[in-house]
Amino acid sequence: MPHTPSPRRIRAAHTADTVTVYQAFPPEIAGPAAAEGRFPDAFERDRMTWIKPSFLWTMHRSDWGRSPGQERVLALEISREGFDWALERAVLSAYTGRVHESRAAWKRELRQSPVRVQWDPERDLALRPLDHRAIQVGLRGEAVRRYADEWILRIRDVTGLAGRVRLERDPALLPVETAYPLNAAVAARLGAATD
After folding, report:
1. How much is the pLDDT for 1?
2. In terms of DSSP bridges, do strands 11-12 and 49-51 run parallel, antiparallel, or are they unpaired?
3. Cα R_g (the chain), whole angstroms
4. For residue 127, what pLDDT band results from cuts at 50, 70 and 90?
5. Are strands 178-179 and 152-157 parallel, antiparallel or unpaired?
6. Which are the contacts of 132, defined by CB distance < 8 A and separation ≥ 6?
């Protein structure tokens, strides 16, 4: 019997030191970022930016890198230390009774936190929704600054890979995304599974 993934489990390409996240940008941001390994001045640090460990969810969100303003897909290797910092401070973007003490407490946390998280249906190779969820991590304020200036270790342009996966639909082309370890406190904060 095939294994059914936990509904809310972070899956990512990761090593002992890094986590790969994806973002899609217009060429004027993605080109210099991939060439220089850091975001150019055109990257807006004063707005929320969403990072996604799921390659296929990023393909869904950017229509395989074909949506206006999302024509180039970047794979950003960031430090696990930074990713964990974000998760430890994250607040769910929607109130959840089993996670939050009260709606008022959730609203207060949401206003104060530089990180928010939402869970969206993971996608298959045809970009159809699956039963389990993919995480998106929204960064603002201090979190965006840390992300852009401290956490990023390597940036690769994977737009070509996006196009190839779209045409060939070969699962062997996909980045290998495995369960990302969470401690119990962070898992509880995110409404995530730890098994």
Report:
1. 42
2. unpaired
3. 16
4. very high
5. unpaired
6. 4, 5, 6, 7, 8, 9, 121, 122
Question: How many CA atoms does the CB half-sphere of 7 hold within 13 Å?
Answer: 5
DSSP state, 36?
A: H
| pLDDT number for residue 2 | 47
Residue entry with tokens 């998106």: 136
- Residue 32's region, left for phi above 0, alpha for psi from -120 to 50, else beta, is alpha
| Burial of 42: CB neighbours in 10 Å, binned 0-12, 13-18, 19+ | exposed
Distance (Å, rounded) from C-alpha 41 to C-alpha 33?
Answer: 10
**Which tens digit of pLDDT belongs to each residue from 83-103?**
999 999 999 999 887 888 889
* Cα-Cα-Cα-Cα dihedral sign, residues 91, 93, 97, 99: negative
